[in-house]
Structures are given as C-alpha cells and as structure tokens.
Amino acid sequence: MSTPTARIALATCAELPDLDPDDLPLVAALAERGVSAEPVVWDDPTVDWGTYPAVLLRSTWDYSDRPQQFAEWIRRVDRTSTLLNPAAAVTWNIDKTYLRALEGAGLPIVPTIWLDPERQMDSRAIHTRFPAFGDFVIKPTVSAGSRDTGRYVAGETQSRSLAIMHAKNLLGVGRWVMLQRYLAGVDTVGETAVVFIDGQLSHSVRKTPALAGPYRKGESDEGPFHREGVQADATASEAELSLAQRVVDALPGLVPGVDHPLLYARVDMVPDDQGRPVVLELEVIEPSLFFAHGPGAVEAFADALVARLRPSGA
C-alpha cells in the first residue's frame, strides 16, 4: 500500500456518516493509490472544505430536502476545491426538469407532463392532465428515491382523487410536479441502470419495481435511504447501452461548463410500450454506483479519480 500523498473528502450525509456500504471499498482502493479519502458530512458547519484539494460527492442523499442549501454549498465548495462531479453538472442535475433538455436533444424519455406551481391549477385543471387509462405516477421534480412519489390508477375514481390531492399539495408549496405514465414494462423487465466511469461504460444492473401505490406521508419518507427493489447483475441490451451512451455523450452540449467526460454517471432506463428503452433518470450527483456488481469497477473508478488529481501535464 502506498503512503498517502493526497487527501480528499468523500461528501456524505448525517444519516450515513461512514458512507454507504457500497462505497467503502473505494476508500481502500484510493489508499492503495496514495490517496487518503475521508468521509465528511456535507452540511456539517464545522468543516473547512478548503482544506481538501478535492471533494467527491457520494452519499449526500438528503439534499432533495434542502436543494437550495445544497446548491449554495456546491458553489461554495467549488470555489476552494476540485468538485467531482463539477458544480455545473451537479446543479443542473438537481431538478429533474433536466429531462426536458434531454428530450430536446432528441433523446427519448418517459413521456412526462410538467405542472407549474405558478399556474395555480385547480382540481379540474389537474384532473384533465391525467391519462385516460392505465397507471400513472406523480412526483416532484426535486426528489430522491421514491420520496413524495405515488402511483395511481387512471380508471379508478378514488385513485384519481388521491392523485389530485397529491399534486395539489406539491404545487401548493411551490414544487414543480411531474406526471408520467407508469410503463407496464417496469413490472416485467424492471429498470436498467447503466454506470459510466470517465465517460466509458463500466457495468449495468437491473432493479425490480418498488412503487406500488398512492403516496401516503410517512410511507416513503425513508426516500433514498431505503433500499428499493433488488439490484441484480445484468447485461444491458444493445439498445439500452446505445441510448445510455448517447445520453452521456450529449452532456457537453447540454451543460454549460462541462466540456469533458464526467468522472461518473448513471443512466436509468425503462422499456416503453414497444419495448424500446427510454430514459427515466440521469444521475450525476450522488447515485449508487453498485460497485459490488461491477468486477473491476472500484479499481477503474479509483484510477480515474487519481488521474484528475494530478497536475496538468504531470
């Protein structure tokens, strides 16, 4: 093992002060490469972030509760340290309205209707935007995991009433709302997550569906800290790999200030009604990277991170 010659912070949250278990092998892999990696809680007011030459975002999973505070922290850290991923990509990725940018670039996303809180929509106006059949999902554009998210049945009066109430409650506190059809392929195929390291495909996993019914306060408040579904090793299809690569390749043209591959990214996809993959989410802030399911992924990640710590031309 090398004697540490560099020091970085692995930003996490108070609920996971010692990191998520999936990230722990990264600490040892970095130590072997001469980098001392220290878990640090992102909103700890006693931390002097300027003492860390680099800060890697890992388990900051409570940021969606305080997105403005998190964005301000990101910008503050970016002034004193090398932030991984960079601040421009992170702040762009906080609000899921980034999906509109992906769609505008010709990338297929889960069909989405966006509800603006400034429009002060009444129950009837919300109701008219619901699909006529099938299941659908309501969630805020700033969230993590299944927090504040519910699944509803278009053909059931009681379910539609609950959906209206859910949407009104979110809009009433100034939150943008996403209304998406629940694609049936999620129940049969699952959700595919493709992980990229330094712009290159690393590995993929498949997750089983976890969203069962209407949102009820308290039931999904575990949010990102709750392990939803089951992650399993999976080989993504050629179509999934192609779409995921297109998403990653498009980022420099979509995010100002991002002109090179990100250290890490995860593209989550589900099949549409014709079985074709569509983007559910793009994660470049603090996604689980499922290192345990990617042979050699921890080592590749550590190598890519160390390369970013070297002075230009070294």
UniProtKB/TrEMBL annotation:
Ligase found in the keyword field: yes
UniProt KW Ligase keyword: yes
SUPFAM superfamilies assigned to the protein according to its UniProt record, in alphabetical order: Glutathione synthetase ATP-binding domain-like
GO terms, molecular function: ligase activity
Keyword annotations of the record: Ligase
PANTHER family: GLUTATHIONE SYNTHETASE, PTHR39217
Name of the molecule in the record: Glutathione synthase/RimK-type ligase, ATP-grasp superfamily
Organism encoding this protein: Cellulomonas marina
